[in-house]
Amino acid sequence: MVTLLLVTCGPQLPAPGAAIPTGPPTSFVIPTVLSNGRVEIAIRTAYAIGTSATIPVRVIAGRGTVTGPTAARILASGIGGGGRPSEALVATLKVAPVAARAGQTLATSVSWDGRDDKGVLVPPDAYSLLLDFRIDDGSLATTANAGATLQWNVP
Predict the structure, then answer these.
(1) For the structural domain made of 27-153, what CATH number should be given?
(2) What is the residue-level pLDDT of the chain in tens, covering all 155 positions?
């Protein structure tokens, strides 16, 4: 007897008879595997400068508890002194943490208005979204991060 396991990555196929989308994708999911679960961040391929973005976040606990995001930051990357890579904090975002217990999938989101912590609109560029999570597998509690790159373009 042969058993086949089908694993898919990316968007699901449309239902039979439904139109098949054409063109490049406009959004995708960035998964991050944690020691006791995973986090999925859904982002668009680009965001328009001057608009706000709400980024959906799914928190999945395989065992124990995954809580978060407990903090959310936007970072800008570049080349610093001596030609070394560097990152600078652009904005600290408000969070609405959820606590997923073993077997649960919970949803939350973070929003960014494209402005820095001083209220100044950021220039077009790629920015890093970094989310912090508290994970507890029943024997050890620690923190973990999940992240994605947000591309901000001129509309």
Answers:
(1) 2.60.40.640
(2) 443 333 344 445 556 666 666 777 788 899 999 999 999 999 999 999 999 999 999 999 999 999 999 999 999 987 777 777 778 999 999 999 999 999 999 999 999 999 999 999 999 999 999 999 999 988 889 999 999 999 999 88
Task: Please state the separation of Cα 76 from the chain's center in Å.
Answer: 16
Query: How far is Cα 20 from Cα 12, in angstroms, rounded to an integer?
Result: 11
Q: How far is CA 110 from CA 53, 54, 107, in A?
A: 8, 6, 11
Question: 50 with 114: CB under 8 angstroms?
Answer: yes
Please report, for the chain, the start and end positions of each structural domain, with discontinuous segments joined by +.
27-153
Is 69 buried (19+), middle (13-18) or exposed (0-12) by CB count in 10 A? buried
Is the entire prediction scored with pTM above 0.90?
Answer: no
Report how far residue 116's alpha carbon sits from residue 93's, in angstroms, rounded to the nearest whole number: 10
